[in-house]
Amino acid sequence: MATLSDIAVSAAINCLSAILFLVAFAILRLQPVNDRVYFPKWYLKGIRDSPTSSGTFVKKFVNLDVKMYLKFLNWMPAALRMPEPELIQHAGLDSAVYIRIYLLGLKIFCPITLLSFAVLVPVNYSGENFEEMKTNMKDLTYSDIDKLSISNVAPGSSRLYAHIVMAYVFTIWTCYILYNEYMIVAKMRLHFIANERRRPDQFTVLVRNVPPDADESVGEHVEHFFCVNHPDHYLSHQVVYNANTLADMVLVKKSLQNWLTYYTNKFERHPNKRPTTKTGLWGLWGKNVDAIDFYTEQIETLSKEEEAERERVLNDPNAIMPAAFVSFRSRWGAAVCAQTDQSHNPTVWLTQWAPEPRDVYWDNLAIPYVELKVRRLLMAIALFGLTFCFMVPIAFVQTLANLEGLQKAVPFLRPLIEMGSVKSIIQGYLPGIILKIFLILLPTIIMIMSKIEGFTALSTLETHSAEKYHLFLLVNVFLGSIITGTALQQLKEFMQQSPTEIPKTVGVSIPMKATFFITYVMVDGWSGVAAEILRLVPLIVFHLKNAFLVKTEKDREEAMDAGSLTWAVSEPRIQLYFLLGLVYCTVTPILLPFIVVFFAFAYLVFRHQIINVYDQKYESGATFWPDVHRQIIIGLMISQFLFLGLLNTKRATNATYLLIPLPILTFWFFRFCKGRFESQFKRFPLEDAMKKDTLERATEPNLNLKLYLQDAYVHPVFKGSIEFERPRVVDEEENSPLVATKRSIHREGKQGIQEDSSEDIMETPEGGSKAGPSSRKW
Amino acid sequence: MATLSDIAVSAAINCLSAILFLVAFAILRLQPVNDRVYFPKWYLKGIRDSPTSSGTFVKKFVNLDVKMYLKFLNWMPAALRMPEPELIQHAGLDSAVYIRIYLLGLKIFCPITLLSFAVLVPVNYSGENFEEMKTNMKDLTYSDIDKLSISNVAPGSSRLYAHIVMAYVFTIWTCYILYNEYMIVAKMRLHFIANERRRPDQFTVLVRNVPPDADESVGEHVEHFFCVNHPDHYLSHQVVYNANTLADMVLVKKSLQNWLTYYTNKFERHPNKRPTTKTGLWGLWGKNVDAIDFYTEQIETLSKEEEAERERVLNDPNAIMPAAFVSFRSRWGAAVCAQTDQSHNPTVWLTQWAPEPRDVYWDNLAIPYVELKVRRLLMAIALFGLTFCFMVPIAFVQTLANLEGLQKAVPFLRPLIEMGSVKSIIQGYLPGIILKIFLILLPTIIMIMSKIEGFTALSTLETHSAEKYHLFLLVNVFLGSIITGTALQQLKEFMQQSPTEIPKTVGVSIPMKATFFITYVMVDGWSGVAAEILRLVPLIVFHLKNAFLVKTEKDREEAMDAGSLTWAVSEPRIQLYFLLGLVYCTVTPILLPFIVVFFAFAYLVFRHQIINVYDQKYESGATFWPDVHRQIIIGLMISQFLFLGLLNTKRATNATYLLIPLPILTFWFFRFCKGRFESQFKRFPLEDAMKKDTLERATEPNLNLKLYLQDAYVHPVFKGSIEFERPRVVDEEENSPLVATKRSIHREGKQGIQEDSSEDIMETPEGGSKAGPSSRKW
Q1: Is the predicted ipTM greater than 0.95, yes or no?
Q2: Minimal CA separation from A468 to chain B, in Å
Q3: How many CA atoms lie within 13 A of B25 on its CB side?
Q4: What percent of chain B has pLDDT over 90?
Q5: Are A26 and A445 in contact (CB under 8 A)?
Q6: Which of A344, A347, A684 is nearest residue B688 as measured by Cβ atoms?
Q7: Which of A35, A175, B291, B410 could make an SS bond with B277 (beta carbons 3.0 to 4.6 A apart)?
């Protein structure tokens, strides 16, 4: 195992690489030519423009002001300067709450670090179990760090009571901070929602599994059903077309157009030579043709096909999927419909809040109930396989990274390995890197799995992917590293142990793996975050596009890739740090400062990124917070069970009983918070809906909602392209004779008033959903 | 362990006692004097009257018609004669579905019994592992029955594939039947609800945790909140008074009145001697006084106190609990309110369907959110303690019942024990009886625990008690008997075994406990059911009351105790038989016929009881079915895991892998059914609400709903006693300026029409809730 000096080398390497990244970032961001890579958010908001051409030609690309280079860290205070309300206004609630997760980490771990250094480190250091430990366990290697950890406390020692008391203090502190944070985020969400502008999804419900009807089309069936069952509130609906083929065509066409632009540019620069291309795959083989003509022709052909397909989709009744977006006269009506059961057959007429238009995942809108259930089953089995079979390669590679094992496996490498610096590098850097490479491949697979599961909104896809990824990290990175790291063969034994034995086995290896996790925090946390701010991939891509595809200012706008927070990947990783901190705070406190540094650094970097770079694809109004809360609690409970197991091996059985209430109370706290807060993130209460409705009715009595909602939920490929044939609005009063006539008369009157003022539309749905801050539900 | 002849003795004893009970029942039920004990249902329905006094004096009490005694079993075909629709009409859906559970048992186990006798019994019998088994395991005793069980198949034998195939067949058959039954019950419920008459709870929602308001009373606050947030649908509300003291007083007064009646009767029979009583506790000591005067005076004092308390409750604002029954203009409005969140703080304004008035558990209506959560936590811990500490005495007693152990423990009893018949009785009868006595004490404790947990309806109390009791039976009767029965010390080892070891340990003891469970089925099942039909306790109580308290025909009516299905006790017991059947169908098929006989006999008896005796306190419309379904699936999965463990010990590892998909698919089936059917039992879909509303509006356009609902949810102690001061109905239009005026004008018009016809009430709420079949939700 690594010694303190190994750790120091690793820390030096990682600090160095982090600083290199930061310096590179500091230099690159000051070059005007990179401005669109490092400040795309401002361009998208229209506040910043391309550098003016007032200066010299060189100044347009390179910044020559030396003074600015000296202050290369000045982005840090700048990142902190923007106050939170302005941040929400600027980047949305999702982003603002996302960086609060890092802040939460600081809030939890700063006091815990101080306390454990003040109490546990002295208790451990004076424990003097070290010599005995060294002699007793020759098969397992111990290091200096263990002198500061619980390993240095003799079994059965009364010093362990200090650890137990601290375990209680840490748990109570964590729960207190979690509760406060939940309350704050809930308030932020409420405030955000209350101040939101009108948006189409506030009035709209997604209806799935519309049952087939022999006499009526899907559109008519939806219309009649909601006219009858929500007579006072139903406004209109939008059927969903199966436009997946069409969407593919649009994508292909866009790529062809890129090639055309590329060759046109090329031709313009060298007007004497017309560019050629080959007709085969990727232009690698086939007949040589004139490139510009070839692509122009290809695009024309595709355009015609696209037109035909568009016609087919719009006119073929089979292209209409059994799903629809149903809009209501008021937010109240939509809230009611989204929260209630419509039919006594719970597999048809399923209603849920419509995601905001940008958030809809169109491919999954029409999966029948039974198929959905089968898909879930298959994906659950696949997830199990993925989680538990991924372990094998990781375990193999990690055993290699154990130097002693490596020397035995490849003896001829021994002289090289025994060189001091090489040894340190291998031990300090390699295990983290190996793990990292494995993990890069994963999120894509997991996202595909979530898509197969059939969720209908991008935000849901992300949260479900995050959950899967969290499970994966927990089993493979955390448990996998702890168990297979000490001995690969323990894996099999582990499966045959009793439930009380498992925490013991894991618990006893935890102190020994502290050094591994310290290097992991530095590689994945420190360097990883520093790499994030450098944005190397978007930088390269932007300059490539700029060189070959950009002709107009609009092209340059499109070449800019602002990126966004990748929730499905980032959040589970943060959770891993929470877990490490909570597990090690009672065991090996020396790990805590590394975690705190990570949280502080990441907070800075992501605050900067959110202000200057990321452009969120959708806004969910922090609906993800219950997941964050739950996963931290899971980490807390895991840490408690492992600590219980560890204490058990310390021959402190009586002391152990003192710890049993801890997980029970933590679980109760979780249930309590769930009941207290969760529904604020999942459902929309009628009181608030009514308030917003009433206010709107008072301020804009002449609003024509129908027109406002008309094209909000049209599939993106249809948008703006052709005059879209909408189903005729059935006159509900005539067609639903069961509805009492008194109501109908009244409603007709009201409708009349509204329709008289159809000129008075204040904003279009696109405008409403793109400009300004917005959340999933007002 | 018991041999085949032990079983035969036990069967003989139990058959005899069952037959004795049946004969006693046959004789007693023919006596006119017992008519009200054995046919109370008909009296309550008003179809049957007290025997006419046309015959001789003797004939009024004793039936002298000999022919009727000969046909002493003729109640059985009579019980089967009533067709199901009529049964639902007669006894309600709850009862009709309850006996379908027994029918379900027959449907599942009849084919399984046939199949396992045709396939598994021959396979086992020709296994010839018996001699080896006998010599190998001297510490554990085997019996002849094991020749027919899987114990007789040699480890690693390919005969085990027959068992695996059968396990699949049995599971598929069980799931098929379960699915069908779920569908049938769901349809019955739908049909029942659709045909139901108007009932107050169809329009009413129970609102709990009304937040305190500085300026308004609870009533005003509720009124304003719902006027604002459900402006088109809110009708009226009924605040809840804390009348628990008053209810106690009413109870005490009733008991005093009973004593007065008793002494008055006594005086009338012996007019020359005025009865006396003592003033102390239970009339045992203290001053001697004239009994009639004493009780008359006591009742008068109490009446005055009661009146004062009644005044206090009605006028003291602190006696109003922060809960209310809110009624709506339509079922649609109530369905919406019950299914949606009202406020963004999910701990206030909690809405749920109002239980039907008879079903309300008034004591629990005002528990604050945090207190409720703490109560749940405490009761969960208490349940854990109850479940796992009850094991100790049972284990002790059961070890006694193991004859060999008994001989060792009390050697001087050896001559007595070795007498053949005594031995058989002890072995066959005792363990079952002991278990039974333990279990009689339990349901009361569990019900108290559920009450502390804070549920607001009797039906919910019963289902939650049933769940707790089910857990208890599972752990203590089933697992407890299997593990502690073979060896008490296994209990401790059991806690330290691995998750894969537990099914093995339990699995290997299962075949050995078959004889114990056969006697258990006979004692608890056969004799227990026969005792149920005899109704010994109600018989005695009725005759005591009849002798001392009855003066008028109305008194006799009240003395009659029809009883009802005790769901919290009966259902978990049935589940135990399902579990036994499912576990033993692959292991020891000889147990199956005993289970089948139990289901058939119980079906007959309970059908008879439901037709002639029980009077249900409330009607929930079979909302309990999802619980029944879930618990059978739990039993199925337990049986699969135990079978897996058993096979593992048979050295058939490869064969075992074939079984792993079984529990996974079963669990998926459970999830599938839950999604497919459960919401039909929990929520009320808007489509059906609207249908019923529309129909009613068409058939009774002049109904005054407000008057109909006025007193539906008044606490029973207030009912009919005094003119109950109702809060003035706030004129909502004036007081809620936020509501758009267009709507208000319209509504005022509508209300006007309704109130003009306030004379046209069709039925009172009490009438609606008592007469005819009725379910919780229409």
Answers
A1: no
A2: 19
A3: 25
A4: 15
A5: no
A6: A344
A7: B291
| Burial class of residue A240 in the structure, from the number of CB atoms within 10 Å of its CB (0-12 exposed, 13-18 middle, 19+ buried) | buried
pLDDT tens readout for residues A475-500: 877 877 776 543 344 445 555 565 56
| Closest-CA distance of chain A to residue B740, Å | 7
The number of residues in chain A equals: 778
Interface contact flag, B341 A684, Cβ < 8 Å: yes
Q: What is the dihedral of CA A274, A275, A276, A281, to 10 degrees?
A: -160
Q: What is the DSSP string of B50-92?
A: SPPTTS-TGGGT----HHHHHTTTTHHHHHHHS-HHHHHHHH-
How confident is the model over B391-395, as a mean pLDDT? 62
- Considering only alpha carbons, which residue of chain A is nearest residue B681? A344
Nearest-angstrom CA–CA distance, A94 and A753? 38
Nearest-CA residue of chain A relative to B341?
A: A685
CA A486 to chain centre: 33
Q: Is A267 helix (H, G, I), strand (E, B) or coil?
A: helix
Q: Which residues contact B194 (CB under 8 A, 6 or more apart)?
A: B688, B691, B692, B778
Q: What's the farthest any 2 CA atoms get from each other in chain B?
A: 96
**Residues of chain A contacting residue B232, judged by C-beta atoms under 8 Å apart:** 232
DSSP letters for A428-490:
HHHHHHHHHHHHHTHHHHHHHHHHHHT-SBHHHHHHHHHHHHHHHIIIIIIIIHHHHHH-TTH
Sign of the torsion formed by the C-alpha atoms of B182, B185, B187 and B193? negative
Contacts of A756 in chain B (CB under 8 A): none
**For chain B, the helix, strand and coil percentages under 3-state DSSP, each to the nearest 5:** 70, 5, 25
Angle separating helix axes B4-30 and B420-453, nearest 10 degrees: 60
Contacts of B697 in chain A (CB under 8 A): 740
Select the residue of B225, B381, B750 nearest A742 (Cβ to Cβ).
B750
Read off the tokens for A355. Answer: 């995601």
pLDDT value for B385? 79
- Helix (H) or strand (E) segment spanning residue B161: helix B160-194
> CB–CB of B675 and A346 under 8 A?
yes
Q: What is the 3-state secondary structure (H, E, C) of B329-361?
A: CCHHHHHHHHHCCCCCCCCCCEEEECCCHHHEC
CA distance B41 to A768: 66
Please report the pLDDT score of residue A599 as a whole number: 93
Question: Which chain A residues are closer than 8 Å to B341 by Cβ?
Answer: 339, 679, 683-686
Identify the segments of chain A with pLDDT beneath 50: 1, 52-54, 138-141, 485-491, 722-778
Q: How far apart are CA A352 and CA A701, in angstroms?
A: 28
Q: What is the DSSP letter of B139?
A: S
The structure tokens 């048809």 sit at A348
What pLDDT band is residue B173 in, cutting at 50, 70 and 90?
very high
Residues B546-587: tens digit of each pLDDT:
777 776 666 677 777 777 888 888 899 899 999 999 999 988
Asked if the Cβ–Cβ distance from B373 to A228 is below 8 Å, we say no
Residues 6+ apart with CB under 8 A from A81: none
Q: What is the pLDDT of residue B391?
A: 59
Each residue of B48-99: pLDDT tens digit? Answer: 665 544 455 555 566 666 666 666 667 777 778 888 888 888 888 989 999 9
Residue B768, pLDDT score: 39
Residue B1: pLDDT band with limits 50, 70, 90: very low
Per the listing, tokens 């239980």 go with: B355
* Run of H or E including B272: none
Contact B497/A498, CB-based, under 8 Å? yes
Q: Which of A321, A338, A323 is nearest to A230 (CA)?
A: A338
